[in-house]
Hints:
By secondary structure, chain A is an alpha/beta fold. In chain A, 45% of the residues lie in helices and 16% in strands. Chain A is built from 18 helices and 15 strands. In chain A, strand 4 (143-144) and strand 5 (147-148) form a beta hairpin. Chain B has a two-stranded antiparallel sheet with strand order 1-2.
Amino acid sequence: MITRSKVMAAGTTAALTIAVLAGCSQPAPTTPDGTAPPEERTLEILTWTYDAESKAWWDRVNGAFEDANPGVTVHMEQSDFGAIIGDFVTQSTAGEVADVVHIPAPVLTVLGWAESGFLAPLGDWLEDTGLGADLHEVQSSMELNGETYGLVFAFNAAMLFYNAGLLEDAGVGVPTTPEEFVAAAAALTGHSGGDGYGFAVTDDESVNFVTEVLSFIVGMEGEYVTNGDWSFAAPKVVAAVDVWREMASNTAPRGTNLSAKRTAFDTGSVGMMLDWPFYYAASIRSASPDVADQVTLAEPPFPVTPLFISQGFGVSAQSDQTDLAKSWLEFAMAEDAQRYYAELEPVIPANQKALSVLGENPATQPILDALDRAELIIPSEFTGMRTNSSEFRTLFTGAFRQLLQTDQDTSEAMQAFDEALRSAGIEP
Amino acid sequence: MSQPSTTNREEGVVTASPSRGRQARRWDWLLPVGFMTPAVLIGIGIVFFCMILLIALSLREQKLGTLEALLNSPMSLENYVEIITDPATWRSLWISVIYTVGTTIVPFGIGLAFALLLNEQMPGRRVLRTLALVPWAIPGVTATIAFMWIMQPTYGVANYLLRVLGISDADVDWFGNVNTALIAVMIPTIWKGVPFFLLMLLAGLQSINGELYEAAEVDGAGRWAKFRYVTIPSLAPFIFVSLVFGAMHSFREFDFIYASTGGGPQGATETIAVRIFNLAFDRFDFTGAAALGVFTFVLVSIVIVLLVRRDRKGALEGFL
């Protein structure tokens, strides 16, 4: 028997079905001028700098990119500098990864990521855009087997940071040679009533320790690889290590990681440090007022300026919108974007058209001056060292920290280190 | 059909008939089991999924790649051969044992001493009991950073005290020296572990029947004899459980070590837990890390089974 309620239920169902079908068959929405609206898309970018000094840069570049690509929204995924490598590897392994990845220390990371299939090849795109012609030669560090897997965004020259007031009080001039460097550090040690130090070093197990010691070696024209083999025991390398050892042992506080080293300088406890110039702006901001006025950059007191590639960009091989990601890279690498970044943080922009920005500010002019005699502390061709960077770092920090903790002969220690690298099967 | 309820008018209580009560009790288990089932299934599912994935990854030749690529790479026992023949694995295992024993026995001893003290009637006992739990409430990484500052070579309080007391003028790099690093990372772990043992053992002490002490006194037992023959045997189950839990916690400890030394210097503090992380995220050897994880799981399981079997015979029987 058909009841009234059954009839009503059937009617309601039919009405709903018609409404749903009608909704499905509606014409696609249009903009007021009758054209189809742009497809809504989100470009994910993984970085560690979105909450740092460079946030303004990200907002400007992303804003320009979104304006030029209607319907596209850039979503920033902020990570920590110490965690971003693990984050990217985990995300890539899981298949849930950002489209663009901001690569820390690419000279040590890119090869492994490219080999694992995490990064999309960019060679053809780079050639098509013509962008490659504007990039500094260090861009070759992003190549594996002739293919490009990333773009160097910026690199750094090791610069001398000094506290002008402390140097003046001690009657010490700005050092320009290794000998003057050692003498200045010694003269400054004991300032501020005896508690102050002349110099600050990174004294931990991190890659920062490695880059700092290599800066002394390469800066003093030491060649730690000769004819494809390790040569840390070479006389010039040993001489450079002795300079570093003398300064680190006798004129610097001990056990300072990168953060503690910078804090020691920013608080006026230390008169000089060797660091990357991007920290210059942060140093002035975090230093106490009486120190901030005295923070000055100078060329490194070495015959050669040590260079290190600090950051790059890559496109995830698993991204389903690699063209969009590459399009964003064009915005990031454009001359004006590169100039703006270098204004915010004094780095050496990879796009050489933007290089002149460093000369527009007297404070950063020394970076430009130092670039004429610069060399990479880890050259692109040292692929064995780059792909085995973790093992190399472990052996390196062990050997060199021993020099700070014992009275071992430097030359003998370097011979043992060369042998340890060979025994471990690590080739340059 | 169910029986109607009956009312005991004299007592004014409504009771179900005996047969219905029995039937209801027969199905009483259904409700709690029903509530628990989803959580149990999800828990077991997650654990088994992770275990299966871990084992599957550990049997692959490729070291790093997307999950799909890893699972499609050829199967091999190479990772197991590598970790078993690698001296660094056994060194890490040995470091783990030292670290586990040190960070279990020492806080146990301190916790027992504090528990005995705080079990006594004394002024401020309640406040002291609360304060004693403070280290437990502090996050591991925060505690580590604090200890790193305390033990900083040049500016740290520890070396300052050594200088003032005339013990050493050197800037001892506690966390950076191969000879002192393991002790350095154990100190914050011990500090944070004391409240756990204190709490467990204090609960045990409060459960001991006072008549046992009275009987011992009647037999002429002194303080040491009462402690040895009444307190310790009565505490045995609490000691056993707290030591096993404490050791398990220490064995898988990661925060303190990674935040302070990352396993260095020269692997001097690289316990198995830290080595697994370093293999995966420092050396990018995911499948090797998975193999080491499985290997460790098997080793720990064997130890736990042996301990539990012994516990069935009697807690700490033969030890106390």
